[in-house]
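User: I'll paste a sequence; please echo it back and then give the predicted structure.

Assistant: Echoing your sequence first, then the prediction.
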Amino acid sequence: MRRLSIVVATAIAIVAAALVLWRTTGPAMLGQFVSVLSSDELYPPAPTMPATVPTPVEDLLAEYEAFLRSDCPTVFTALQPGLSDARIDELEQSHGLKLTDDLRALYKWHNGTPRSANVDAFPNHEFIPFDVALTNRTLHGQQVAAESAQRQQVHAAFAGHRDDWVDVIVDLAGDGYFFDPGRSESQGSFFFCFAEDGSYMFYPQFRNYLAAIVEGQKSGVFNVGARGVDTSDFEKAHQLMRRFGAAAPR
């Protein structure tokens, strides 16, 4: 809930700034400003992505679990049991979305870690339980719906592209890896977003991200830190992720 509060606070700040522009310069000027920030700039289409990793996602998850068991037991013990197919089906139906096969395999492996554990199950990011991520998405939608029509309009222009995203592996600031059920895998439905600078990295499937993490763990790019899985060299990590994903031009 703390992460949701941070995200909501950030969105409110954006809306507040836009409303100041509305009141001081008028709707026409705000409209011109919004038109400059096209949806493709705020949430770009995925560029040409690398080929999908041929290794089955289940094999990569097993390899990553072996690392957590041996080198990061604090994270491993915090992982919640995986969800059954029936439970995933129920959550998909009640929230009107469909997971990719790779993400279904992820949540069948383990259903994230509880917020109280305060651990990074993946490098520098928490693994959000599927049901929690969907609840947060619903709460965010309710908060937006409770705002005035004017605020809703501004929200739609500046942050509406995030409304359907599902948190998968994120940090406390709301940056990280998301699933957009409105995009296909070929369109980059699984991606990294760093809101502070508007950067994106798109992956053809979740397994590409996971393969990069497994390789980085073996090579020492990722290691074990105070909160769990950490990054030892951010420049090497960025280069590694670019081999398995595609950065959107800025």
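The longest helix spans residues 2-25. Confidence is low (pLDDT under 50) at residues 1-26, 32-36.
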